[in-house]
Write a sequence for this structure.
């Protein structure tokens, strides 16, 4: 193996918390962010929650000199909020909208309207191709009773599928974003172990930032400390992940996060901390013998671990399926009751009408009010029925794909001479060391 | 270049027209399709419009021996209708839902409820990896005044993006499906020229089937001849497309279609004709000199043609944007009128209420009816507003990506010593020979 080339790439990821008129000090913070990006000149800047296109356009104007290439990913009602700025030319972009993303009637959570997605940009860095991904998964509003967990697990599943299938031709894969998952959460394990992506915080040679790499911290003045409970100091939910290819090795030389305040500024950039990673890419001329044995060594163990994780994800999706079925059943039942009420009302009103000449005993006002109520129930439950059916289809689809994936992984596992017996990989996943899943780029 | 291996793959694609209780002779036709597939033993079977999962499951049962591997792609309210059966093991599947797909209130067209998508399955055929895609684009209900054209163009755009980005690791790419586009329609040119996919009908060594490869023909008893007008004999809208890779060359040895009737059966399999293609894959050991000059030769011309096609697609998407903006404006205006009416009504009712003791002159029944009408208008226009905003975002997103793609293509074009001047590729696309776009696998 002969190293022939070394390329350095500085990446920033930041959730900008850019809800116009609602987020605190929004215009001032965008101005600060613009100044910082212009000065720091990161190679790649991955932003989330840039909800307003106007804010993106003003950032684009501000960064015209430092980052001439950029893309804003549009999706949903409001937009995906995802933006990418780059020093290197963006050759191609692609957007994948997650099939599940909360509920439209949970308007105060707003995730559904955002049309959450993963955006991809293909960049040429020197002679190398980099696939850069930016995403923002569904928020976790209550960790103890997280009704959005199946949705987030399906998003993580689709994210790993998207990255895995679109990155075959890339020399370098970088994912930045607010995953709304703790480091060892199911979705995160699924994503990392299936794609082989490495966590910059875990891999970095040097680190300067918040304790445990936290990105949502109690010391940030925009944070409501009560909402962090029981994680008093904070949580790590924003990530920069990366991997190389068979042609390249990639290393994280340093990583840093902001620490809740910015020197000489009255407030921080956002309620999330900004992440910066310094990556180094080493190109090597690959000989067949270089890589083959290295992969073989731990492949069986990794596959077995992956089978466990996917099985765990399937269980979570099944829980979601069960809930969605329940909700659809409730909607159906309410709709049927609305219909029955309407029929009953019409029957009562029809009796005196059939017995000609009899005075109508049903007060007109009540009649119309009741009818309007019935129609409102019917319409609402019909819309809910359609929505829950779509949710069910998406969950079932993910579950089918996971089942197929488990089968295929087990098939591969059987091919290994040292593999454990068929049913062994199905042991409970608690026993795993996360390091067993770590890829070996 | 030394040929080392040859693999043969037989592919079938069929739009099954499987709307339970509505499509004519649906159960009988499914039985016929099952018998035929079981007997013919195609390597890969790509089905569209299998709207009911029950029908998929009964087919799966019927084909358990001949096609042990299968997948049904779930999406939308009803389902995507896409299914794949395979003799070879399916290792992985992935579904991409198109961002645009008609309008939910056009319920009689039904496309929105189908949740149109492209399904991908990764198969191992011997030592080769095949990426197999199945899709069904939005129907064309009126060719002269096709209000769905921007939606279909965006679907074709997303289809080519999906195939291009997910097929980098594949030795063989096969796409089968009902594209609802004539051979030289914009979306079809976009798809073929961007991905380099070849049309089996145009490339086949032998052909046995309908005139001009038509797949929706007047001779099919399920076809309403009036709907085909002005194409009296029929149209070609179903396709099998394919390409190899740098490691493989692919050829179509033969192709056939059914011809509107099936010997010894009272009616055909569907209102569409079934397509069968015999593909042959030749693996070769690639030396750098093999491919490089061949690609260079016509690359500039192809790029210029591609710039034209993407520019044409952008124009079409802009037309769609203009329409969607108009629709959203109409919805907003109607909503504002509904609100004004409600305010006016409340004002009229409030006057005698404020002047205490005066008799209420507004008849109660009319009052409630009018109020209900206002609320209905407000709700409907609100939902339409949200829907059109999502349509706008999706169209704008596609337009942005196309603009970026054109820029990137023109940049590449400048790199060619023999390239035409900068503005030359923007000449009207009518002058192109389709053969200029044909890839050179």
């Amino acid at each position: 193996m002969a190293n022939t080339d070394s390329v350095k790439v500085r990446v920033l990821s930041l959730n900008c918390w850019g809800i116009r008129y609602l987020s605190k000090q929004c215009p001032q913070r965008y101005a600060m962010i613009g100044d910082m990006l212009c000065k720091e000149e990161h190679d790649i800047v991955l932003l989330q929650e840039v909800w307003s296109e106007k804010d993106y356009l003003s950032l684009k104007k501000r960064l015209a000199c430092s980052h001439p290439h950029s893309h804003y990913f549009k999706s949903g009602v409001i937009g995906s909020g995802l933006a990418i700025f780059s020093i290197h030319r963006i050759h191609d972009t692609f957007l994948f909208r997650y099939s599940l993303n909360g509920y439209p009637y949970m308007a105060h959570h707003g995730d559904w309207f955002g049309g959450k997605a993963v955006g991809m940009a293909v960049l040429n860095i020197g002679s190398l191709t980099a696939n850069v991904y930016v995403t923002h998964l569904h928020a976790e509003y209550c960790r103890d009773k997280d009704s959005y967990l199946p949705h987030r697990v399906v998003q993580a599943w689709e994210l790993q599928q998207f990255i895995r299938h679109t990155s075959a031709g890339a020399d370098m894969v970088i994912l930045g974003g607010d995953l709304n998952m703790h480091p060892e959460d199911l979705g995160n394990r699924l994503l990392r172990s299936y794609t082989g992506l490495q966590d910059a915080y875990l891999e970095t040679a040097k680190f300067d930032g918040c304790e445990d790499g936290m990105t949502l911290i109690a010391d940030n003045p925009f944070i409501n400390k009560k909402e962090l409970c029981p994680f008093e100091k904070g949580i790590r939910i924003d990530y920069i992940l990366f991997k190389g290819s068979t042609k390249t090795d990639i290393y994280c030389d340093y990583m840093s996060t902001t620490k809740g305040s910015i020197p000489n500024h009255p407030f921080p950039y956002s309620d999330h901390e900004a992440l910066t990673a310094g990556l180094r890419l080493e190109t090597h001329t690959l000989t067949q013998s270089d890589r083959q044995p290295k992969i073989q060594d731990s492949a069986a163990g990794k596959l077995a671990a992956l089978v466990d994780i996917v099985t765990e994800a399937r269980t979570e999706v099944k829980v979601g399926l069960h809930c969605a079925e329940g909700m659809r059943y409730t909607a159906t039942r309410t709709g049927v009751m609305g219909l029955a009420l309407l029929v009953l009302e019409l029957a009562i009103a029809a009796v005196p009408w059939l017995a000609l000449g009899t005075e109508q005993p049903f007060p007109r006002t009540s009649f119309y009010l009741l009818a309007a109520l019935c129609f409102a129930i019917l319409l609402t439950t019909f819309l809910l029925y359609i929505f829950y059916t779509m949710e069910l289809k998406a969950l079932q689809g993910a579950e089918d794909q996971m089942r197929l994936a488990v089968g295929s992984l087990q098939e591969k596992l059987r091919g290994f001479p040292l593999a454990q017996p068929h049913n062994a990989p199905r042991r409970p996943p608690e026993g795993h060391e996360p390091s067993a899943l770590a890829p070996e780029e």
About this structure: Chain B touches chain A at residues 71-77, 79, 89-97, 99, 115, 120, 161-162, 165-166, 168-169, 364-365, 368-369, 372, 379, 386, 389-390, 393-394, 396-397, 400-401, 404-405, 408, 411 (CB under 8 Å). The longest strand of chain B covers residues 2-15. The CA atoms of residues 52 and 321 of chain B lie 34 Å apart.
